[in-house]
Amino acid sequence: MQACRLAARDLACRRGDRLLFAGLALALEPGAALHVQGPNGVGKSSLLRILAGLLPPFAGAVEREGAVALLDERPALDPTLPLGRALHFWERLDGRAADLAALGLAELIDVPVRYLSTGQKKRAALARLLGQDAPVWLLDEPLNGLDTFAVALVERLVAEHCAAGGICVVASHQPFALAHARALDLTGDLAGAAA
User: Fold this and answer.
1) Average pLDDT over residues 160-184
2) CA 1: distance to chain centroid?
């Protein structure tokens, strides 16, 4: 796995006239996991988009080393294509294919993406994430729509990624079982909370 690091200092996010968070600092090295918690609307998704470089912070700075992969509610798969062809598009770009059988998707490769259930789409997005081979994972509500088997699968994949030297930031209001993960509650005192 390529070298990776993710850090932020004095980070702030503003939406309209509302300051969602301020003074946030974090430093994540290889093998680190961070569980960003808080109710809907506190800025968990915005934080991940800032960390990914897709949204500018209101204040502060982010430092990234290594490729970043973001999993959110948009699976980036053509809804008109069968799942196998939709994933193959990304495999050609990324140069790597995920094990669809391990994700419970092997029997769905001929089903158009638009007909997949919420949980199946989430697992398809995981296949895309695994194909990117990025050392830094940013996962926004990765457990939404998943059954018990799939929740355990996601938790295992994250644990394996971190054990291999990757970094993972999980933003979720749901519990996420991951040994040694630090927690960051966006409703609490943020300054240096995850440093």
Assistant:
1) 90
2) 17
- Check residue 193 and give its pLDDT: 45
- The answer to whether residue 19 is domain-embedded is no
By the 8 A CB rule, do 143 and 120 touch?
Answer: no
Strand order in the sheet with 33-37: 68-71, 136-140, 167-171, 33-37, 182-185
* Predicted pLDDT of residue 165: 95
Q: Is residue 22 situated within a structural domain? A: no
Average pLDDT along the chain: 90
Amino acid at 66: G
Structural domain of 124: 29-55+67-185
Is residue 24 one of the residues assigned to a domain? no
Q: Helix/strand/coil (H, E, C) string of 91-113?
A: HHHHCCCCCCCCCCCHHHCCCEH
CATH number of the domain at 117, please: 3.40.50.300
Q: Chain centroid to CA 55: how far? A: 15
Summarised one tens digit per residue, pLDDT across range 72-117 is 888 889 999 999 999 999 988 887 888 899 899 999 999 999 999 9
Q: Does residue 44 form part of some domain?
A: yes
Total-model pTM: 0.90
Long-range CB contact pairs, 87-91, < 8 A, 24+: 87/124, 87/127, 87/128, 87/131, 90/128, 90/131, 90/132, 91/131
